[in-house]
Amino acid sequence: MALPVVVITDPLPGRRVSEPLTFTVDAALEGDLWTARTDTGEEVLCQRLTAPAAPGRTTFVAVVSFEQRVELTLAGPAQSVGGGIRIREPKEPDAFVRLDTGYFDLEMCTGTAQGTGASKWGLRHFGAVAEGVDLLPSGNNAIGGFYGPFFTPENGLINPPEHTTVDIEVVERGPVLHHYRMHGTVPDGLLEELRGKTFSIDWRFTHGTPYFTRSYRVDDFQAVINGRSVSNKITVGDEFESGAGDIVFTRFEAYDGTRYGAGDPYAEELKTMVGKLLASGISATEKFETFKSLLTGDFDSAHWDLYWRLFSTWEGALPDADIG
To answer: What are phi and psi of 220, to 5 degrees?
Structure first.
């Protein structure tokens, strides 16, 4: 039987570096790993996906660097595997997995729902392997959280989705691709129409690729926030750490360009509320005074944990022991 040949063409100019390619061939092939050869003679490792393809067909993922066009000819099951994505020793107690993808060193956590930055689910450590710089060194922030109408004054300020826990499903795990799916439920807030909403997030990491992908699914919702109707729209917030006066990077880039959109209006409203509260002279509790003393100077640089704790102790939403 002649082994399948796959031709990939890129309509965009420029060179693809360690680009993940998913392709399906018209053959039922056994074996988790196969090798293929490009039309330039390079050997490429192909990982068979466990998700079933149509009968008589097989789907693979491979990582290839090419420009405009590349041809892959499947050679046969891989006899040995050198390199690929590695699992490393994690740093956090709630870590699900720490990966060295060949480009990124990252740690994915399930969260502990303790209400602090260090208890969030998502990527709580992240950096480029070549640079050796952890952009989240304290583990007190995370990449991946989403907000939208859930974390707003109308719905209450103590229930962002990232302050819950998630179950993580392993969809694919091999030297070429790690695919994880998070499952969680948004904590209930004040608005009845936003309660009981579930979500899932698919994370895909491929070997040596200078980016990763993720996709979000949230139950349908509709609410009115700040007088504006919001239907099935979320805000994704990735956090990085540096410090006052420190710079860890100066720009963002993307293959298809970088677009900027102003933040949701509730963020500015919240900042205004904090400013008024600090200027009011209200002294509710000793804990309240402690949080007020920490919120001085640049509000934009303050950790959001301080915001929600300030309002929680002011409104008596939680006992001091839980807030502390």
So the answer is: -55, 140
